[in-house]
Known about the structure:
Layout (H helix, E strand, L loop, with lengths): L5 H17 L5 H17 L3 H20 L4 H35 L14 H16 L8 H10 L1 H4 L7 H9 L5 H34 L7 H33 L16 H7 L2 H15 L6 H19 L3 H24 L5 H20 L3 H11 L17 H14 L18 H23 L10
Helix pairs in contact: 2-6, 3-4, 3-5, 3-6, 4-5, 6-8, 9-10, 9-17, 9-18, 10-15, 10-16, 10-17, 12-13, 13-14, 14-15, 15-16
Amino acid sequence: MTFSSPGFLFFFMPLVFMLYFAMPKGSRNAFLMLASFAFYFVDAGFVTAVLLGSVILNAVVGNALHATPPGKRAHLILTFGVIANLAPLVYYKYWNFLQGAAADAVGASWTPSAIVLPAGISFFTFQGISYIVDIYRRHSNPAPGPVGFGMYHSLFPQLIAGPIVRYVEVAHEITDRPIRLVDVHEGLIRFCVGLAKKMIIGDNVGMIADRMFGVPANELTMAAAWVGILAYTLQIFFDFSGYSDMAIGMGRMLGFKFPENFDQPYRSQSITEFWRRWHMTLSRWFRDYVYIPLGGNRAGPINTYLNLLIVFTLCGLWHGAAYTFLIWGLFHGALLVIERVAKNRFNLVPHGLSGWAVTFVLVMIGWVFFRAQSAHGAMQYLAAMAGLSSAPTIEDVWNVVTPDKALCLCLGTVIALLPPRLDHGLWATERRPFAGPLLSAGALVLFAYSAVLIAANGFNPFIYFRF
């Protein structure tokens, strides 16, 4: 059930929130857990057992680690917990990819297995691992009972596509989260803004990207290829950040303060800065649970560069079991290594307008691999961007970018590049009472227009739902 579907917007969400606000405080965790499993079951069916198994596994392992003194036994329990978390992810997400890679290596034929990927498995797997590792490190205590943990691990606003919420970030709110009108108000505004980002900008520019990537790359003009990847660059930002806004907004309405996931990433002046601003909860997860345990930057430059490549190879594969995602991850890892070398050896640090322009173009080049259906298709598209397509006059940009789509493209570009001060603190109506009515009216207009678009055009799943 996607957040932009009529069933969610006009049935599930209002029903759940009305019941949640009406019921006694002591029943809310159990209710949210049941509602979250119902939300998941609507689309997943009996695959919901995978989520239930993850809840049981991490609750048991977390309690066992808390009761075990530091030492070899605790390390064995942690190792078991991590492997048991990863096993379903490897099977459901990577089994066909691994079979195909092995078959390609020996030149054999193979038939993919009919495996249905459980929605959000990459997210709740990482969330489960962070929970048990933090208990092992004595950074956190276990959740207060199976219901408290079950609610945290399955909470529907962030279950399918994040943000990846660590238990320590919401531990206090598991047991004590009063309903405050200001939280409900600001959370609802943010939800409406996120929905509008998805429906008004993300889906509209996505039509341009789909058209450009849907024709053979040698039928694209150079301008069309660049407009296509700019459209996808904006689509994935407004689609994913829109989802994050909706998730954070609903969490706020329920009394949770989820971590932010985006901080104007397309204003970055280096790839290093980009990864501090893009999908921040995932970046921090890889930093704290992979990069630092590998040694981080403590074991000399060569090991640092190797660790960066390992982390971003895994980051690419986390997004998808395909060579395109692997290349995308390696591409970003290599760029980070190059930036480190330039800084350490030549004292060259990207900055200013030139740093931003180079970074933005490199990010767009990376998105080609992220969007393309194959590595070969990505290379053909890059050739079209370089003006090397063999038939550069068949599919021109003006056949696709109608005035309404051009408006969304321009509007999306401006919003994505807004100075941070115009965006940060937008939701702080408590500090600026005069802004409350204006934001409420604006949010209502955005919601109404988004609802009209959903009724007229239907809805598309969020891009990150498939990860």
